[in-house]
Design a protein that fits this description.
Elements: E1 6-9, E2 23-26, E3 29-32, H1 34-44, H2 55-81, H3 84-105, H4 118-122, H5 124-137, H6 147-158, H7 160-163, H8 169-186
Antiparallel strand pairs: 1-2, 2-3
Helix pairs in contact: 2-3, 2-5, 3-6, 5-6, 5-8
Length: 187
């Protein structure tokens, strides 16, 4: 990819720059937003597809990615970092979302089957970041009770494709502990 004029602008702590808006620049053309970047990569470099080939399965992958971004991430954020008045409801909503995700993972190694794919990359926020945020915030929402998700998480974070791209856990936890402490004092 580098020889084709590719740059990804993001943040050191995010292996896929999965924050609100990372930017990929390819041949001097900018693409913003994580999921759009993933789809662009899939369509541009076809030798290792991350999206399913079947149109229905592609639509379902987009559905689950949207579910994770629009339902799971906000409820996790409120459960771990929200105001005391919203935490209890957010934890319940998060647990319901996790139950739904577990049903989609039953009998599969990854969301797309046997290989890491689009939904797994989007769900990186759950596989790595939620556990890190839980430790930094000293709260627990995603527990071993969700054994299917925990098994998937272990396969995902220990896979040779992802293992070397994740930031050091200790450094990331320290960063977010400091960030959360600053947020509390400024509010």
């Amino acid at each position: 990819m580098a020889e084709e004029g590719v740059k990804l602008y993001g943040f050191w702590i995010s292996p896929y720059s999965r924050r609100k808006i990372p930017v990929l620049v390819h041949n001097e053309k900018a693409i913003a937003e994580s999921q759009l970047i993933l789809e662009y990569i899939d369509e541009t470099w076809k030798e290792n597809p991350i999206m399913p080939q079947d149109p229905y399965e592609r639509a379902m992958a987009r559905f689950w990615a949207k579910f994770i971004d629009e339902k799971c991430v906000p409820s996790f954020r409120k459960a771990l970092l929200g105001e005391e008045t919203e935490v209890e409801n957010a934890i319940e909503e998060t647990r319901e979302n996790l139950k739904i995700l577990e049903k989609t993972l039953e009998d599969k190694n990854f969301f797309g089957g046997e290989r890491i794919g689009f939904v797994d990359i989007v769900a990186n926020v759950i596989a790595y970041w939620v556990f890190l945020f839980q430790e930094a915030a000293e709260k627990e929402v995603l527990t071993e009770e969700f054994s299917i998700l925990c098994n998937w998480k272990n396969k995902y974070v220990n896979h040779n494709i992802t293992k070397e791209t994740l930031p050091p856990k200790d450094k990331a936890v320290a960063f977010y502990r400091a960030h959360f402490a600053r947020s509390k004092t400024s509010s």
